[in-house]
Amino acid sequence: MKWTSEQMKSGVKKLSCLMAACALLAVGGLAPTAAAAQSGGPLRIEITDGVIEPLPFAIPEFVAEDGGSSDIARSISRVIAADLASTGLFREIPQDAFISGVSNFSSPVAYADWKAINAQALITGAVSSSGGNINVKFRVYDVFSGQPLGEGLQFAGAAGGWRRMAHKVADIVYSRITGESGYFDSRVVFVAESGPKNARRKRLAIMDYDGANVQYLTDSSALVLAPRFSPQGDRVLYTSYETGFPQVYLLDVATVGRRVLSSQEGTMTFAPRFSPDGRTVVYSLSAGGNTDLYIMDIASGQARRLTQAPSIETAPSFSPDGSKIVFESDRSGNQQLYVMPATGGEATRISFGQGRYGTPVWSPRGDLIAFTKQNAGRFHIGVMRTDGSEERLLTASFLDEGPTWSPNGRVIMFTRESQGASGEAALYSVDITGRNLRRVLTEGAASDPAWSPLLN
């Protein structure tokens, strides 16, 4: 999406049937001072590994500029507040603490009233509707400096896309205050589970990052595992047992059309993942009792073997620049992590702590690798540098596994399963500092999450 300060417009591709087109434009007359525009304003959260005091913000209910937009205005402001508060970096000031409200989007800000309740950031907005479409405009203010934090903007689109508009507003607010890109306007593909633990039924599902707008992509007639988004968010790779053996499938999110990616008699394929350009897939292929990594060109179907070892090589993940692959292997006697060139060749072991390591995933920033670790009867989600240094465990439980990165590399989502006959899988998220462990709300049991890129 390309934005300018005069007029910012973009068509948003239809992802499944979520929403129609949405446009982003600069709101005239809302530019901050030149210094504030260049610096982003003095209000900024410095994100470190230490304990962070959440920044208090106020978000009055968005103004409904016509009689038909009251409910949507209220809902949009609530979603924005929930997005920001869910990060653990922000704390919403309850509306019953407000000294003054906002009844007109164009009215001057009473900074003294917001300072008095210790609001450091103020978010105001307004919604209007016409013929099934809505316009959402908003501003962000640095209360203590008494200045707008960046330009006021607006979104226009179908009323049914109001949640996406809210997530986009929250992304912009998050970015202006933290200096990082946001992650709220994204989706998660996962395995929705039902039935008893010893006869669990599984099907692919897709949802907003916060659990809303669930859509099912497959039925539960066959076991499905390990869905993975393409870099464009329009396709999903996954493993299905519908033939009785694991095979990799490629699914189009919009049409739900699918095809087997690789099918060779006497072989099993699993653990697929896209390359950063979306043109190739790396996966595991098991034949004759041996499991190695292969890479395939999606267009031609031509595959090439990357590893040739008597051990099990699986769970590959590309570096963001596509030059390397991290994977798990038991070539040293138990599960450990290795990095090799994406073209194949010699692999370097990077995990050396106690226990077993698996399911490595390269951060979108390129600086960290997330993994699952099993040690002393406990499972952990952890991160390490790409050379294996600075290992840090973020969680610990009976069973934590399968990390996936948010688009900005700030948050990790994973599966946590409770123990016992009635135990079930659920999705959780945690910040890479180990803070803000949260359960992701789903309608039932859920596992194997994979985060999409930011939507276009």
UniProtKB/TrEMBL annotation:
<feature type="domain" description="TolB N-terminal">
    <location>
        <begin position="43"/>
        <end position="148"/>
    </location>
</feature>
<dbReference type="InterPro" id="IPR011659">
    <property type="entry name" value="WD40"/>
</dbReference>
<protein>
    <recommendedName>
        <fullName>Tol-Pal system protein TolB</fullName>
    </recommendedName>
</protein>
<keyword id="KW-0131">Cell cycle</keyword>
<dbReference type="InterPro" id="IPR007195">
    <property type="entry name" value="TolB_N"/>
</dbReference>
<comment type="similarity">
    <text>Belongs to the TolB family.</text>
</comment>
<keyword id="KW-0574">Periplasm</keyword>
<dbReference type="GO" id="GO:0042597">
    <property type="term" value="C:periplasmic space"/>
</dbReference>
<comment type="subunit">
    <text>The Tol-Pal system is composed of five core proteins: the inner membrane proteins TolA, TolQ and TolR, the periplasmic protein TolB and the outer membrane protein Pal. They form a network linking the inner and outer membranes and the peptidoglycan layer.</text>
</comment>
<keyword id="KW-0732">Signal</keyword>
<dbReference type="GO" id="GO:0051301">
    <property type="term" value="P:cell division"/>
</dbReference>
<comment type="function">
    <text>Part of the Tol-Pal system, which plays a role in outer membrane invagination during cell division and is important for maintaining outer membrane integrity.</text>
</comment>
<dbReference type="InterPro" id="IPR011042">
    <property type="entry name" value="6-blade_b-propeller_TolB-like"/>
</dbReference>
<dbReference type="Pfam" id="PF07676">
    <property type="entry name" value="PD40"/>
</dbReference>
<dbReference type="Pfam" id="PF04052">
    <property type="entry name" value="TolB_N"/>
</dbReference>
<dbReference type="GO" id="GO:0016787">
    <property type="term" value="F:hydrolase activity"/>
</dbReference>
<keyword id="KW-0378">Hydrolase</keyword>
<dbReference type="GO" id="GO:0017038">
    <property type="term" value="P:protein import"/>
</dbReference>
<keyword id="KW-0132">Cell division</keyword>
<feature type="signal peptide">
    <location>
        <begin position="1"/>
        <end position="36"/>
    </location>
</feature>
<dbReference type="InterPro" id="IPR014167">
    <property type="entry name" value="Tol-Pal_TolB"/>
</dbReference>
